[in-house]
Specification:
The protein is mainly α. The protein has 13 helices and no strands. α4 packs across α5. The radius of gyration is 20 Å and the shape is globular.
């Protein structure tokens, strides 16, 4: 599969405005719809700061923070997937393939086990665990995994194929260690570990959104700086250098940005699968050869997919909601198969 091959002709000038409208519509739908059926008037009153305490709590303290967190995480997952697919020239690259998700999984597992056995497991409750430290713990693990993969690939001349193989190998090892720890010592907190592993926006607060916001802003701010290098990194190193590109330096910079985006998102909401893989392909399908449109379209569609996926999970699961990671996996498979049929 060629990353630059178009699947449609010249893109419509309305594609990006329509995608932005979809973000707004999904945002509104996620606010007004939920397990608790609130009248439209009560939702509007809560948004303005009035209304009943129950409505304000549901809208301002439960729905809004998880929606904003989901939007930011979706943007980061999608953009990280696009960057990784571009620099590795691998259409199947995403944070899980590069070992970032597995690194975050291992550190989160270690963190939860450590906090359990630091105190008395019989008297510990989930609310007493320092859950606020989960996002930075997960991010640290993802960045360490990315750093290990980079160092190994650097010693092997940093070819896209080798860095992908390093990611698969390191990711498999880290995942095996995490699963072994969960099987051996994770019974005291198996429920919360499995919920995080499935990728979930359940109980996400404004703290999670504020944790992600700087990374989202920084990632978007970096796009103008890495735009030209990103175009050249789609080609072979020799071709890229012939255009005056400092290949290793720019490759390293883009890899750092993608790892930071992916690891922070995984740390906040868990390894939400298929978003980093599917969304870039969907953006390319809609944008065709128009690469300047692929970048913003990827960011916007990432927000849409995660917001709608979380809404579907909330409505379909009832009180026992379906995690967003499960929904995106179920959504991603048919979308991937449909896109593959369109690719020569």
């Amino acid at each position: 599969m060629s990353l630059g091959a178009p699947t449609i002709g010249r893109p419509s000038r309305w594609i990006l405005p329509i995608a932005l409208a979809l973000v707004l519509l999904s945002f509104v739908a996620a606010i007004f719809l939920g397990i608790v059926d609130l009248p439209v008037r009560d939702v509007l009153s809560a948004l303005t700061g009035s209304g009943s305490p129950e409505a304000r709590s549901i809208i301002l303290d439960i729905r809004l923070p998880r929606i904003v967190t989901g939007i930011l995480a979706g943007m980061q997952f999608a953009l990280a997937g696009l960057l990784l697919q571009t620099i590795t020239r691998n259409p199947l690259a995403d944070p899980s393939l590069m070992g970032v998700s597995q690194g975050a999984t291992l550190t989160v597992t270690l963190f939860l086990l450590f906090t359990v056995y630091l105190g008395n497991p019989d008297s510990y409750s989930v609310n007493e665990l320092p859950i606020a430290w989960l996002p930075p713990a997960g991010m640290m693990g993802g960045m360490i995994a990315g750093g290990i993969i980079y160092l190994l690939a650097f010693r092997l001349d940093l070819s896209p194929l080798r860095i992908t193989l390093c990611g698969i190998a390191i990711g498999a090892v880290l995942h095996a260690i995490a699963i072994g720890l969960i099987a051996g010592w994770g019974s005291a907190r198996i429920e919360i570990i499995l919920e995080w592993l499935s990728g979930s926006l359940y109980a996400r607060t404004w703290d999670h959104a504020l944790f992600l916001l700087p990374f989202t802003i920084a990632g978007l701010a970096m796009l103008p700086l890495i735009y030209r290098p990103l175009i050249l990194l789609r080609f072979d190193a020799t071709v890229a250098r012939s255009f005056g590109l400092s290949y290793k330096a720019q490759f390293s910079l883009v890899l750092l940005v993608s790892c930071a985006l992916a690891s922070s998102a995984v740390g906040a909401v868990g390894p939400v699968v298929f978003v980093g893989l599917i969304v870039p392909h969907l953006a390319r399908f809609l944008a065709g050869r128009h690469f300047p449109l692929v970048l913003p379209l990827t960011v916007v569609l990432g927000a849409v997919i995660v917001t709608l996926g979380d809404l579907i999970g909330r409505l379909a699961g009832g009180p026992e909601e379906v995690p967003i990671g499960v929904v995106t996996a179920l959504m991603g498979v048919p979308v991937l198969l449909a896109l593959l049929r369109k690719v020569p």
